[in-house]
């Protein structure tokens, strides 16, 4: 298995200007409010039998992306990096992409749309222009926590920029704790799946107060299969964020139980093949479990 979604952060590292990094993270997050580094990540992957991972940005800063790239240079288990560039400034985006794509491990771009105050962020002309540059360079674009504000605009983006490979993180964050919103999520989610340039991650599916079991998640899994098929789904542990809901091994075990009902070829796609194709990853084993 390749984990397509793993985070690292160091809270005592400050970005230019003295701003505190990861402003979304605070004492209210309990055990998550600390640094999570490469050594701990490697031991976690080894214990779960995961052979490599994609590092995904957790802060809309150059510093966060550069930190992940530095980790990748030291650790062959890092198969790819999904970092941040300034999408609302095409000129700055182009300059950043020129620098970042000089490192082959840089595979994609992400922006924390759910934390951005602009509800129309993905529809902004400047952002669309920048995402066209992302597509031209053969990079994927990850969209996190899209529901409810951004899932509809994600569908529009996929339709109107078909050359862009668009990755929906965490199945768009289905509102498991609010049954009244599930129909709305499902409508947009299925519409996104009808766009051939889209991929979705089976990740980040914990919901406060609700069970995290294969039985509880099966309706979501079946909907994801209907929308994307195994060839456009990939598995991700969302470590360490997911540890708020379950230990890393338990998080993966539930997802693996769902996937185990599929054919061997479908399992291979979800566990590795889709991630390898989507991000252009090396396919050789890099972590000895």
From TrEMBL:
Q: Which keywords fit this entry according to its UniProt record?
A: Hydrolase
Give start and end of each Amidohydrolase-related domain: 2-281
What GO MF terms are annotated? Answer: hydrolase activity
> What's the family?
Belongs to the metallo-dependent hydrolases superfamily.
Q: Quote the Gene3D superfamilies the UniProt record gives.
A: Metal-dependent hydrolases (3.20.20.140)
Question: Which top class of enzyme applies to this chain?
Answer: hydrolase
Query: Has UniProt tagged this entry with the keyword Hydrolase?
Result: yes
Q: What is this protein called?
A: L-fuconolactonase
Query: What PANTHER family would the database entry show?
Result: AMIDOHYDROLASE (PTHR43569), AMIDOHYDROLASE-RELATED DOMAIN-CONTAINING PROTEIN (PTHR43569:SF2)
Record-listed E.C. numbers: 3.1.1.-
């Amino acid at each position: 298995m390749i984990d397509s979604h793993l985070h690292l952060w160091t809270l005592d590292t400050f970005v230019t200007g003295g701003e505190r990094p990861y402003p979304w993270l605070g004492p209210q997050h309990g055990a998550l409010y600390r640094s999570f580094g490469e050594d701990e990540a490697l031991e976690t992957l080894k214990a779960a039998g995961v052979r490599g991972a994609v590092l995904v940005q957790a802060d809309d800063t150059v510093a966060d992306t550069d930190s992940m790239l530095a980790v990748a240079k030291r650790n062959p288990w890092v198969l790819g990096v999904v970092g941040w560039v300034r999408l609302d400034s095409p000129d700055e985006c182009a300059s950043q992409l020129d620098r970042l794509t000089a490192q082959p491990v840089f595979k994609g771009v992400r922006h924390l749309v759910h934390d951005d105050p602009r509800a129309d962020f993905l529809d902004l002309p400047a952002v669309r222009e920048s995402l066209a540059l992302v597509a031209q360079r053969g990079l994927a674009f990850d969209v996190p926590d899209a529901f409810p504000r951004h899932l509809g605009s994600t569908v529009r983006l996929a339709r109107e920029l078909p050359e862009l490979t668009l990755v929906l993180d965490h199945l768009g964050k289905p509102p498991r704790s609010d049954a009244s919103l599930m129909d709305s999520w499902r409508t947009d989610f299925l519409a996104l799946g009808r766009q051939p340039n889209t991929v979705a991650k089976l990740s980040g599916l914990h919901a406060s107060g609700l069970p995290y079991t294969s039985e509880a998640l099966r309706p979501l899994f079946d909907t994801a299969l209907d929308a994307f098929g195994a060839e456009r789904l990939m598995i991700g542990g969302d470590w360490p964020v997911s540890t708020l809901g379950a230990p890393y091994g338990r998080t993966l075990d539930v997802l693996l139980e769902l996937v185990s009902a599929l054919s061997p070829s479908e399992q291979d796609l979800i566990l590795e093949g889709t991630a390898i194709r989507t991000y252009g990853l090396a396919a050789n084993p890099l972590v000895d479990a």
